Amino acid sequence: MNHTFLATAAFGLEGVVANELRRMGFEAKAEQGCARFVGDMTDAFRAQLNLRTADRVLLFLDEREVFTFEELFTFASSIPWENYISRDGMIHVTGKCVRSQLMSVRDCQSITKKAIVNRLMKKLHVDRLPEKGARYPVDVSIYKDKARLTLDMSGDALNKRGYRTWNGEAPIRETLAAALVDLSPWRSRMPLYDPCCGTGTLLIEAAIKACGRPAGLSRSFICEDFFFMDKKELAAIREAERDKHDAAPSFTISGSDIDPSALELARRHIRQAGFQKQISVTQQDLRSLNVPGEPGVFLCNPPYGERLGDRKAAQALYKEMGLLLKRHPGWRMAVITSDFAFERCFGRRATQKRRLYNGRLECEFYIF
């Protein structure tokens, strides 16, 4: 039986996520905050294993206009929760309300849970629910008076790949890093170099793409504990996806940083991800950096001057990045930063620009 699912995405990345889903064979449509696709429950599991740029996969249950708490209760009561939540399931309701008549998130959560519990007790012919079993995360989202109910299939956000167990200062999120790899001019046959590699996230996400490894292969998803999911079938899907990717990939991905402590974390992350033989990182000053070999792509997330150091130092670095590109004829450079004076400091206008968000910071992604 097919269902509708929402692969949630950061602002500006909805189309990137939709394209990923299409490459998997789904018909996907980009919407504000997500990409919508249709499939069965095993399709949702397969999507989660492979998605690199989405935040979560949600089972879409229904949506309806609501203006009062009574209407919200009636709406929530209409969902066949007995098909999605086990009799001992732990029901956890989150919520958000934006530009709507109902603006008390706490009340909306409480009313939604009450509706779920009442329906389950009635359908299961019980007078109480123990809530000691698997956790079922339900979300009630109300935007412009339209309420949407979803069941989270992911649990931990999909950026939790399992390889980054140590964090440096201001790390870029794995899903954003994967999106930057996709949006950059780099292709796996080309050299890729990050001259401000920090803890190595961009390098690892590029390697994951280059070898075709499912991004979620080393982690679990909360839906694996749902009573309606066939555990043997999920295990078979995971094993089949594991066999698809290239276990001994050949690519040229490397990087450097001036900070030895960041490089130590990068090496740990690279080792955790299983790419210690394919990705090399060294301590280098960007001002004197020269990368030998064929032309490729510089891809980096440099300090912004907001959370790391001061703006003057960051802008001096941007100038050096422009000089770095000049020293490497035939190379291209892709950079994300929240400093909108980047082009002036870099010394030339970008060929392409795209507005993105790194966490809450509004950024531009420049390609030179």
Counting DSSP H or I runs of 4 or more residues, the number of helices is 10
> What is the total number of structural domains?
2
The low-confidence parts are none
Assign the CATH architecture of the largest domain. 3-Layer(aba) Sandwich
Please, could you describe this protein's structure?
The protein has 368 residues and is an alpha/beta fold. It has two domains: 3-152, VC0802-like, CATH 3.30.2130.30; 174-213 and 225-367, Rossmann fold, CATH 3.40.50.150. The protein has ten helices and 14 strands. The protein has helices at 14-23, 41-50, 69-77, 105-124, 174-183, 201-211, 231-244, 260-273, 311-326, 342-346; strands at 3-8, 28-31, 34-39, 56-65, 90-98, 135-143, 146-152, 192-194, 253-257, 279-283, 297-300, 332-337, 352-358, 361-367. The strands form two sheets. A seven-stranded mixed sheet has the order 2-3-1-4-7-6-5. It has a seven-stranded mixed sheet with strand order 10-9-8-11-12-14-13, covered by helices on one side. The longest helix has 20 residues, at 105-124. The protein is elongated. The N and C termini lie far apart (47 Å).
